[in-house]
């Protein structure tokens, strides 16, 4: 089917006129920088392009090459990542850079070698090879899944239809033109999905594929792809303690190296659970003894659950037990130099106003 319809010609012709200008993309006629591709693709995992751009620019300013990133401390990398979320990506990115630096200093050009690196799966490996090295791989992300589902009018629901969509997407670049311009073709599919074949209100009238898109021809593009209804997110509850000394320093501690917000700093907090525990139990858990006053509640939405946290502020002298021996005092003006999540910054900002 794909050899009978000039998908590549239509897609690349459109891309040559309408491609997005992004800081990690090579300018026309220049060779792509695989490090830029690797960095941007890891940042773009579950994160919007507009959000990623300033972080990408900041990383390149501080870590111009992969070796610079590998030689940086994890603490500095995590601090630079603060606010971008999904912090395991930053840890894996740093480990990946160190692995590559140890081996040869060059990002691998082989699919399996790439997948062996921390934080790189099927999609990221395909993106690096196609965009960074012009190899004929099709990187299938949500944009490409959506374009493919509409192009072939696939009406079975996601996520069960993912393997079929991936297989169909990979047929789109079978022609010589697409394979010779593998990087452009991959980015063209991303751009069509992001700017034209959008999740809601697709702009079929200006789409380069409208005359060969089954969903467009059948007037069903706006309902595809079909998704199974998601289960309602569970809610977790926690208690956090805001403790500030007379030097405007805030007591913080490091979260575990695995799990949500891994390795970032937080206020002394109870374990998040299915219901609130008492303030007395939270004080015991954190090892921060003293008298506290409740000052409010913060709500934060994660990908898989909603979190509600009651905030308590210290109103008496503080005594730290053995449990809190690794806690640290950090001045409020210096928080940006440490890996502190958006959630924690929100909680600290709220607490300092009370």
UniProtKB/TrEMBL annotation:
Q: What class of enzyme is it?
A: hydrolase
Q: Which domain of life is it from?
A: Bacteria
An example Gene Ontology biological process: mismatch repair
Domain (HhH-GPD) ranges: 43-195
EC? 3.2.2.31
Any note on cofactor binding? Binds 1 [4Fe-4S] cluster.
A molecular function (GO) held by this record is: oxidized purine DNA binding
Q: Which family does it belong to?
A: Belongs to the Nth/MutY family.
Q: What is this protein called?
A: Adenine DNA glycosylase
């Amino acid at each position: 089917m794909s050899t009978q319809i000039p998908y590549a010609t239509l897609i690349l012709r459109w891309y040559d006129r309408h491609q997005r200008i992004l800081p990690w993309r090579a300018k026309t006629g220049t060779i792509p920088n695989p490090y830029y591709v690797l960095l941007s693709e890891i940042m773009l995992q579950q994160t919007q392009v507009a959000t990623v751009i300033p972080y990408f620019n900041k990383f390149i300013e501080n870590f111009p090459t992969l070796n610079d990133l590998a030689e940086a401390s994890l603490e500095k990398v995590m601090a630079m990542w603060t606010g971008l979320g999904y912090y395991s990506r930053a840890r894996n990115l740093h480990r990946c850079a160190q692995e590559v630096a140890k081996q040869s200093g060059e990002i691998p050009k082989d699919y399996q070698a790439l997948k062996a690196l921390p934080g790189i799966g099927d999609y990221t490996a395909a993106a690096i090879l196609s965009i960074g090295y012009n190899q004929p791989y099709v990187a299938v992300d949500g944009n490409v899944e959506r374009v493919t589902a509409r192009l072939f009018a696939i009406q079975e629901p996601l996520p069960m239809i993912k393997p079929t969509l991936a297989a169909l997407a990979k047929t789109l670049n079978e022609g010589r033109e697409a394979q010779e311009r593998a990087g452009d073709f991959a980015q063209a599919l991303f751009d069509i999905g992001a700017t034209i074949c959008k999740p809601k209100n697709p702009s079929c009238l200006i789409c380069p594929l409208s005359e060969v898109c089954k969903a467009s021809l059948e007037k069903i593009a706006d309902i595809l792809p079909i998704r199974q209804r998601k289960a309602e997110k569970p809610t977790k509850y926690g208690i956090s303690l805001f403790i500030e000394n007379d030097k405007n320093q805030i007591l913080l501690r490091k979260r575990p190296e695995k799990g949500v917000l891994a390795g970032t700093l937080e206020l002394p907090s109870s374990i998040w659970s299915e219901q609130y525990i008492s303030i007395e139990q939270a004080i015991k858990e954190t090892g921060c003894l003293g008298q506290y006053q409740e000052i409010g509640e913060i709500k934060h939405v994660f990908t898989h659950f909603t979190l509600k946290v009651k905030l308590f502020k210290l109103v008496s002298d503080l005594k730290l037990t053995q449990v809190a021996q690794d806690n640290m005092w950090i001045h409020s003006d210096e928080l940006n130099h440490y890996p502190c999540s958006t959630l924690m910054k929100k909680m600290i900002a709220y607490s300092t106003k009370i």
